[in-house]
Structures are given as structure tokens and as C-alpha cells.
Write a structure and sequence with these properties.
265 residues; alpha/beta; globular
Amino acid sequence: MKKNNSIKIIFSLFLLLIIGITGTTLIAQDIDTTKIKNKEFNENVVFYPQHQDDEILWGVSAITKAIEECGADNVYIVLVSDGSGVNVFTRNPIFTKIPRKEKEKLRNNEFKAALQELGVKDKNIIILADEDNKLGTHYELMEKTILKFEQELGSVTHIAHHYKYDDHIMHRKNGEVLKRLRDEHKIKDARYFMKPKYVKDIPEEKREYYKSETEEERDKAKKAINQYKTIDVNKGKLGIGYTSAHSYFDNLYKDPNYTSVLSVY
């Protein structure tokens, strides 16, 4: 009861300060998908989002298509950072007294709920902060995990952030891990999340577009996106993802097909 009251107090203060939080500006791009033909996924697909919400913002429809193509048993999500450094936590004094592990839990509540809506199985959600038993980011463990999947499953498509075309340094470092392993021929199939404003930097023949085209796909995508906006104090959900990056979310909401773009370059 005491813990629940504490969360409610934090939430009340959070609402008072929410107006002062700004997201990252997103430049929308007009994209022509008529000439694009996606490569098939391998038998298994592993996504490596750096933070909670990256998997939705840059890969919501790609995850849906991977599950449809490969089956839910063969689609994995590996969270590389604990996400406790998000601007909502660093810019607002109401969160300074909350332990870092509790901040991570608040973010993971949204993360797991979003993936559940997409049909990702709980057993296929891997949180490296828990595996490593320490907070922060986990590039070394990310590398070991990539190699483990490659060696044990054989036929794998690995998807991380772009190593060059991204304005977030942690995203680029994330992508550098995958690119290096690909350059060293330790993995066979590497693809990269693309933020819309960088799509133009990738040759057309190196782009893949994934869209939620049916009513069922669009419903799944929207419900997943909404998990980062939903406020439900009793479930420990404070809309942290949306508050932190609302311009990116708003851009995605405007796209009726919730398009995800991957680069194979």
C-alpha cells in the first residue's frame, strides 16, 4: 500500500511537469515503396533495441511481419540498455530519489506490454540488464548474445540500430557492434533500424519497408504503440516512452500503416 501511494504521488507531480518536457524533432520523409522488394527473413529474427520504445518506434511493423513470416517461437527481442537515463528521469527532480532499478522497472512495464500486444512471447524477451545483473548498457553482452544466436540457431536475421545514420550516440554504438561482426564474417544477415529522416541516405535498393496493411495488423501496431502512452498507476505505467519522445510517436501515429524501414547497408 505504501509503495502504491508513493507511485501515485510521483505520478501527480509528473503530470504537473509533463508540459515542460520536449521530445526530439523529427523530420518526416516522403517515401516511395513501389520499387522496393524486401529480402525474406531467415528462419529466426532477433531485434536489438537499445532502449525501451526503440523497438516500436523503428520496428513495430517489422516485428509483426517477422512473426507472420517466421512464427512467434522464432522472433526474439533483446533489450541492450536499462533505459534509466531517459530524459524524463534526468530532467525532473521528482524522479531523483527513485532507485535506478525502479526506473528500469517502470520502463520495462511499457516495453513488455507493447511486445505482448505484438504477439512476442515472454520467453523470447531478453533484458541484458537482468542477464548481466547490472544496470547501464551492455554492448559486450550484446556481442556475445549475437554470436550465441548465430551459433545455436544457424539461420538468423539480426536487426540493430544503424551504425552511422542515427543522431543518438548509443544507437550508433549499438549498430557498430552488429556491423563489426558482419564485417568480420561472424554473422551472415545484418539489418538496421532507420529513423525516417535518414532514409534518404540509404540507396533505394538497400531499403526494406514493412507496413501494417490489414486491419488486424494495424490494430496490433496501434495497441503496441499506445502502451508507451498509456497511464495506469496501478500497473506502474506512466507514459514515459511517449513523454520522452512524443514527436517520434506522433509521427508514427500519423502513418496509417505504421511503416518501419530497415537498411541492409
